[in-house]
Design brief:
By secondary structure, the chain is of the alpha+beta class. The protein has nine helices and eight strands.
Length: 253
Amino acid sequence: MGAFAFRHIAEALREDIRGGVVGVGGSLPSERELSRRFEVSPGTVRVALKELVAEGTVDGTRGRPKTVVRVPRPSSSFDEFHSFAQWARGHGRAPGGRVVEKRWQIASEMDETLLQAAPGRRILAVTRVRTLDGETVMLERTHYPEWLGEIVDALPDDVASVTSRLADEHGVHFSHAEHMFGAEGARARDAAMLGISRGTALLMHRRVSRDPAGRLLEWATDRYISGRIMVSVGNSRNSNPLRWALPGSEPGI
């Protein structure tokens, strides 16, 4: 089955659960039974089960059978979560948008902190209004360090996915990001750009992104109109990607 047999086993078990072979509340076969089924050692089965426990699909209480606690959902790729356009297309929707502001500015204190920009360096600040099937859903403000800003500044204002264009044509790959979510009321300027009333509830998503070498590529704040898009995440005692943060704190760099 190959060096990564445990991954194939874990996915086969996920398919069993999705298909109703083992329902929520039911127990998976023993390690010995799974070893015979997949013709692998018990150790390989154990690694596969640990993966299901870590993602919260099965309960991993020691001394008990592995019980299914939820139906696993397909995970979104990093690119799909990071790129609004890729996420939209992946769900059969039509992404769109336009640049409403683009300017060079001297690095602010926030830029110095989140992009590790030296004092006095230029930063490209871009504001885009994004649409989904022609409906306005989000206001996106992105700050790029000078070297990357020069590339982005030359891109057409109507490019569907800056992330994809940077990867395909310039070899710039987004591979890591820290995310923070919150809620706020729309300020007058943002409300005018989004075509909504001042004070309308917005979902705020802030991220700081890096490339595979750890180089900082951007910090951005997206503001989604309430009810248009939601974020889904699961957690368990064995795997908890969530944490509370105080207002005013930023994604770690």
